[in-house]
Amino acid sequence: MTTKRAPFIVVEGLDRSGKTTQTSLLQARLEKENVPNRLLKFPDRTTTIGKMIDSYLKSTSELDDHVIHLLFSANRWELASTIENLLNEGVTVIADRYAFSGIAFSASKVEASDATVPKLPFEWCRAPDIGLPAPDAVLFLDIAPEQARLRGGYGDERYEKEEMQARVRQAFKRIGEEAEEGTLWVVVDAGSERDVVAEEMWGSVEALVQRGLTAPVGRLWK
Ligand code: Z5A
To answer: Domain Thymidylate kinase-like: where (predicted)?
Structure first.
């Protein structure tokens, strides 16, 4: 008999796109279906590295753009073996943000003197995450920054500015178009009602969750 493993599902999106709301609805759905699961959130602000990231995002500390990018990546590597072990034990893993956010946000930083010049090249941003456990499905919650702003407006964190969010949206679009074979990349209209979004997400991953996978956990961009 072939041993099966559980799927790794990543939920990505812009600020206020509903990731927190939808990852908990997806988790509730898995509970209802008696599917063992674990919900992770990146950045994981509880670790030593996560605390440095938290303080940077809240602008209580300053870090070089290269350094913060590498810290976000290190924060994922801290959990890489945990993710792989859970999947192999049959536990479906949901991640609220992952390496795609890492690239999209860092590659969207631009020079103050010229907003058309990126501070960090796209390929450089991708490099530290090469080899992380690869998700089997990425659900990208797409929403226009103007609509996201109506959900309470952008808060105080560093990247919560409309021009930045617009560049991030473009970067995510590119990442989705270049998604590897074997990764299901689903663009979900996050501007719809909560329940409609939740149903679309569940419909996209239900078969994966119910059937499981025989292929070993993949490696990102390898
Ligand atoms: N970042 C990075 O640079 N590099 C990396 O590698 C990683 C992250 C991993 C913090 O992320 C920052 O870190 C983030 C990217 C960067 N910067 N930005 N921007 P985070 O994930 O911790 O925080 P966040 O993106 O700011 O999440 P959020 O503000 O909590 O938004 P959300 O989780 O997507 O949305 P929500 O809390 O579920 O919903 C927002 C509001 O909308 C709330 O009032 C809901 O009740 C409402 N809502 C939700 N769904 C709906 C629908 N369908 N209709 C109407 N209203 C809704």
So the answer is: 11-199
* pTM check: above 0.95: yes
pLDDT at residue number 155: 72
Which of the 8 DSSP states describes residue 5? B
**Ligand 1 pocket, Cβ-based, cut-off 6 angstroms:** 13, 15-21, 42-43, 57, 72, 97, 101-102, 105, 151-152, 157, 159-160, 193-194, 197
The token duo for 38 is 């674990």
The encoded tokens of residue 28 equal 């509730």
Q: How far apart are CA 168 and CA 142, in angstroms?
A: 11
List the residue whose alpha carbon is closest to atom 4 of ligand 1: 102
Of 71, 66, 162, 77, which is closest to residue 106 (Cα–Cα)? 66
| Bridge pairing between strands 114-118 and 110-111 | antiparallel
Q: What domains can you pick out in the chain, each with its CATH number? A: 8-211 (3.40.50.300)
CA-based end-to-end distance of the chain: 28
* Distance from C-alpha of 149 to C-alpha of 143, rounded to nearest angstrom: 10
Q: What is the ipTM of this complex?
A: 0.97
